[in-house]
Specification:
Blueprint (H helix, E strand, L loop, with lengths): L1 H10 L4 E3 L2 E11 L3 E8 L2 E8 L5 H10 L1
Antiparallel strand pairs: 1-2, 2-3, 3-4
Length: 68
């Protein structure tokens, strides 16, 4: 799933549309067991987003709750 999402980002000119606007100039800055972290620009401001690519059991849910 991580590889598929990374290919999607590259094929969409390194941007994604989200409910609050378009995040542009996405660049991967990290990766973990269940997610990928990107930096980018939203309305000309630096942002970071974490994309969960695997979410299949209660252990993953506990990890998500701890990181929030």
């Amino acid at each position: 799933m991580k590889e598929r999402f990374s290919k999607y980002i590259k094929s969409s000119n390194n941007e994604i549309h989200v409910s609050i606007g378009i995040i542009e100039k996405l660049k991967q800055i990290g990766e973990g067991g269940n997610s990928i972290v990107y930096s980018g620009l939203l309305n000309h401001k630096d942002v970071a987003i974490k994309v969960f690519t695997e979410f299949n059991d209660k252990k993953n849910l506990r990890g998500l709750k701890q990181s929030i």
